[in-house]
Amino acid sequence: MTNQEGAATFEFIADRAVLDFVATVADRGTTHLEKLRVPGDVARWVQQSGILHDALQVTDEQLTHTRAVREAIFGLITALIDRGHPLPTDRELVNGVATRPRPVSRLTATGQVRRTGDLDAALAVLAADCIDLFDGRDRNLLSWCADPTCTRPFIDRSRGRRRRWCDMKGCGDRAKAVAYRQRHRTTKVGT
After folding, report:
1. Half-sphere exposure of 153 (CA within 13 A, CB side)
2. Which helix (H) or strand (E) holds 75?
3. pLDDT, tens digit, for every residue of 112-171?
4. Which among 69, 89, 107, 110 is least surrounded, fewest beta carbons within 10 Å?
5. Distance between CA atoms of 35 and 39, rounded to whole angstroms?
6. What pTM was estimated for this model as a whole?
7. Residue 5: which of 63, 51, 44 has the closest Cα?
8. CA distances from 33 to 23, 101, 108, 175 (A)
9. Does any domain span residue 135?
10. Which domain holds residue 41?
11. What is residue 8's DSSP assignment?
């Protein structure tokens, strides 16, 4: 998705920044829609996520590094959900990024919290969030979206763990529409 200026738009629906971060590539394995196409996309994602409040200046080299970190995180999350073994290279990269200094939080005169730092600080937050999934309470709540083209992980906090879609407004609505059309085609053919 892009806005009128052609910039990527981002969704923050996963309740965990790291899961929204890996979703900056949509439809992995099919269209592989890259949403971090230019350095400004990274700066916009970080600011929109709320990890940092100040605008970042991101270089092409930092864009490449950010994508590499995202893919390593995706590899670790995939291993966690699918009960596989993380690749050592993914684990080492994420562990290394997580050791970087985190954003600095300050309380303003108006009672607002402002978080400042650089791109490394933002990536450190995401890497630490990924690591926390391996030991945190959400570990056993991770699932893949049931939409066959969606490759977005989500946390299923529903009663009975019956949630199937990363978001009802997108994947869930599409699935309902397909099921509705199939039911009505079957009804018309049968009459």
Report:
1. 26
2. helix 60-81
3. 999 999 999 999 999 999 999 999 889 989 988 877 777 789 888 877 767 666 655 656
4. 110
5. 11
6. 0.83
7. 44
8. 10, 31, 38, 20
9. yes
10. 17-164
11. B
